[in-house]
Amino acid sequence: MSNTKHQSHSPDRRAVLRAAAALAAAPVLLGAFPDGATAAESTSSVASGGGKSLDLPLLRQKRTLGKGAYSLEVSALGFGVMGATYNRGITPDRKSLIALLRQAAEHGITLFDTAQIYGPLTNEELVGEALAPYKGRVAISTKFGHSIVNGVYQTGKLNSRPENIRRVAEASLKRLRVEAIDLFYQHRFDPEVPIEDVAGTVGDLIRAGKVRRFGLCEVGPETIRRAHAEQPVTALQSEYHLMWREPEKLFPLLAELGIGFVPYSPLNRGFLGGDMTAYTRFDSGNDNRDTLPRFQPEALGKNLLFVEALHRFGRARGMTAAQVALGWLLQKGENIVPIPGTTKLAHLEENIRAVQLAASPADWRQLETELAAVPIVGDRYPADQQKQVQQR
Ligand SMILES: NC(=O)c1ccc[n+]([C@@H]2O[C@H](COP(=O)([O-])OP(=O)(O)OC[C@H]3O[C@@H](n4cnc5c(N)ncnc54)[C@H](OP(=O)(O)O)[C@@H]3O)[C@@H](O)[C@H]2O)c1
């Protein structure tokens, strides 16, 4: 009798032992994926992804952007891929970048942000190749809305006409190697196309199964309300960090409508990471900081006072300047998912660890008070680009 019982249970026990072995073999992957992938599935993703279990921290914390049918649960910190190929100067070779993006996925990052204009096109291609082994386990956001003709950016021109949105979606799907775009943002408000038409077109793409969710960048309350009424918005993505706090005005509205917030350039394009000096210069070929008022030599030097305050705050709490900048953003709301970009494994680790570090609300208030007294020199954008991010 006991023998029969033993035999009837042994296949299950073997399965349990196999699963336990798989868990032991792949400890860093537990909880890495939001879609309920099992440990065994996660183990096979290591093999197919070519990644190696390094001693990097595992990002377990999740946050939810948006609500209801259009919500998206992702890691508390995403990865902004733009600077891997575009606007951030010299970057490592493609093979190294692919390895870096896979390391990010292996260590729990489940939101990767790109756009048609980054490159143009090549950044999406990189993301598509790097994340192909993680399909269904990480979310990719991309963006439409700039005018790109035959792969060439028509400087300063926007295009959110419905036929262009549909064209961009089809092409982005191919470059990203996915069946549906997890989150499709309008990159810049197009004054020539009513936002209802934009939202309605993305809604049609959602119903057609080509897009899963809709997002907006750098828009104001009226546009958010009108778009959301046509097609629920999952996330607003706007510049937000310790040196640019304007979006806070929108937080009550985002809370009211249940829209998530994705701060872009969360380290103010690297400045808050603390590695720059008054003598830092940018490669005019592939680094837009060369044109930004806050990164001109005089402004850089004066704004270092800001970074010194972050260093002081961090030194007393075991945090680097970058971790202070990211930690401050994360404690601003549970619906906030910053997307810092990096080309370095060391910075990836530093940024991931920022999620685990904490300061008290009183500490953060003290930091804000101290920083309020530091004058910020230079606008965030030159006049032509500033026009495209004015709140509407
Ligand atoms: N929607 C929009 O209009 C819009 C606009 C701009 C950006 N974005 C999105 O936001 C993402 C991030 O923005 P971003 O690249 O402008 O700015 P960011 O994330 O604030 O800064 C990126 C820069 O910071 C450096 N960095 C990263 N981690 C660091 C650390 N721990 N310590 C010191 N330096 C560090 C990186 O250099 P290393 O490579 O040396 O680490 C990189 O040059 C982009 O990739 C893109 O997806 C969206």
Structural write-up:
- Residues 1-51 have low confidence and may be disordered.
- 41% of the residues lie in helices and 13% in strands.
- It is α/β, with parallel strands linked by helices.
- The strands form three sheets. The chain has a seven-stranded parallel beta sheet.
- It has a single domain, classed as Alpha-Beta Barrel (TIM Barrel), CATH 3.20.20.100.
- Strand 8 (183-186), helix 6 and strand 9 form a beta-alpha-beta unit.
- The protein binds NADP nicotinamide-adenine-dinucleotide phosphate (NAP).
**Share of residues in strands:** 5-15%
How helix-rich are the residues, as a percent range? 40-55%
Question: Cα distance, first to last residue?
Answer: 76 Å
Q: What's the CATH topology label?
A: TIM Barrel
Shape: globular
Order of helices and strands: HHEEEHEHEEEHEHEHEHEHHHHH
What are the salient characteristics of this protein?
11 strands, TIM Barrel, single chain, 7-stranded parallel beta sheet, globular, 392 residues, two-stranded antiparallel sheet, binds NADP nicotinamide-adenine-dinucleotide phosphate, 41% helix, alpha/beta
